[in-house]
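Notebook, student rotation project (T.W.).
Task set for the rotation: take a protein with a known small-molecule partner, predict the structure of the complex, and write up what can be learned from the model alone. Partner molecule chosen: zinc ion. Sequence and SMILES entered below by T.W., checked by me.
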Amino acid sequence: MFLIERSLSGGRPIEFRRERLTGLSCTISPTRLSRGLNHPPMPAAPADDCPFCPGRLERETPTFPHGSRIRRGESVTFPNLYPFAPCHTVTVITRAHAVVRFRPLELADALQGAAASLVGAQGYASINWNFRHSAGASLDHPHLQGLVMGRASFVHARYLAGSARFLSRTGRLYREALLEHERSTDRFLFGDEVPFVASAVPIGEREVRAFLPAGSLEEAVPYFESLATGLCRVLDLYQDLGSHAFNITCYFGRSGRDRGFSAFCSVISRINPNENSISDSAFMERLHLHPIVMTLPEELGRYGRDAH
Ligand SMILES: [Zn+2]
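Predicted structure of the complex:
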């Protein structure tokens, strides 16, 4: 499933890894962790300038054409004022402005609200989350972004095409073959209905993937409680490891069209918000699309399985 080449550079270990399904690759250099760049996070910006806090949200965010917003539990979903896809929505997850630990139920509600805003739109759906400025969020108040794009993004397209090829070549879903392989490795974390695994070829720091037993967004919704429960465990694990910023993307197939593809959700930790504006995205991540990662997935899997 994966090509893993271990070598030494100046006596220090590095690993080149490639995922055979997609050709995506990365290099893991655990030595780079010892640079100690991840300082304690800066606090969230104050709530007094936040359009997503209760009160201002109702006055300052747009509504859908029928004049309303979608509410599920605490969450509120509305169109994005600054869209970059034909269908692009925002889901404010909590009434609270600054959240340290998320609860499964509030996250499941938000995922369901986001899904409700996307169902029926034609194209490639995803539900995404940038948490904290250092992960690309423009506002600290926790919010998801739902997207349906007319054409699939690079990573989304790789998995759609690879999964279809895998099905026609082997007669099996890639998800089944992958989980059969990963269950016996150090990378497997937890989960039965929705298994969580430290990604063997991480495309970001401490990447964990959740594999849904469904293809399209519509089929995936019944599993959002399991997904949210596991995501909260992963976010707690990140906190234990000192990571307070992250990105999440859940990729979905099109209803009845993307054979072989199973929806999955990818979580990566990001450098904490910091005074120096140090970033963990540099030329390798952005221009080579080849992430340089510090944490071995097997170590993350062992730690996460035992500690949680
Ligand atoms: Zn707020």
